[in-house]
Every structure is written in structure tokens, then in C-alpha cells.
Amino acid sequence: MAVDGGNRFDPYEIGRAERGLGGSGRAALSRILVSRAFTCHQMEALLSRRLGPALDRSGAGIAVVFGLPETFTDADVPFAEACRVFRSCLSSLRRLAADGTRVVLVGEGGIASRDDRAGFFRHLVRIADPCLLLHREGDGWKATLRGRAGRCIPATGGPKVGKR
Known about the structure:
By secondary structure, this protein is an alpha/beta fold.
């Protein structure tokens, strides 16, 4: 199950990957459900009211949320309202995780917005456990995996995958 707030998730990449492994590409695509949100209010509606029932219907045990902070960059939404909606989104994600869904957040740290809105991403990094941060370094990527209180944890370890 994918929720895309950054309009960057391409499910056809999953199909191409399956074809690269010798499959048809259609089997993987038929099992992916994508919902897109373009505003923070749409994201809140997806996370608080629609995602849980969709996970239950599909039997999916994982929800990948792309671009959560990006939906909060709209200057037409007052900052106090954006903060309230952000807290509501986080509460919804915590409830899903407490019910056994593996919640994965994917986003960019270099959000082009006012400084106050960039704090949404920084807050996610602070509360995520574990948190895998990827940074471009030259032609490649550098990965840092952190657990509670910023401590580094081994890349081969980590939490067990639960079922919903």
C-alpha cells in the first residue's frame, strides 16, 4: 500500500523490477495500491480515514508513505492549521503501527519552502525509529541507520516485520 504526497512514486518501476527478475511485471503491479495526496488536508483524510480500512481489505501489512512533509509546504494553509493536521497525521500513523502495520515514511530533507515548514521533515527524523537517512555523496549514496535517541544501529539488525 503506497500513499504518495510527493507525486514521485512510480509503480511501474516495481513492474520493471519484477520483469528484471524473470517475472511478467503484472503480478507485482496487481498487488500495489496507490493513493495520492496533493495537500495536507488530503493527506490527513487518507491517513486518518481511508488507509486503515484499505489495509484491512487488502491484507497488506505495510504502508509506504511518500512525501508526507511535502504536503505541508502550501503557504495558503496557516502554519497553526498545518501543525494541527501534521499532528493528526502522526497520530494516525502511530495507530496503524500499534495495530501491527509496518509504516515506512519516505521523504526529502531539502524541501523548498519557508523555514518554518522544513521543520516537519526534521521532526519526522527525530521521532522515527529506526530512521534510515540517505545522502548523496559524489556519484553515490551514503546511508545512516539510527535508532532511539540518535544511536547508530547495525544495518543488518532492526525490528522484526509484523503482520497487520
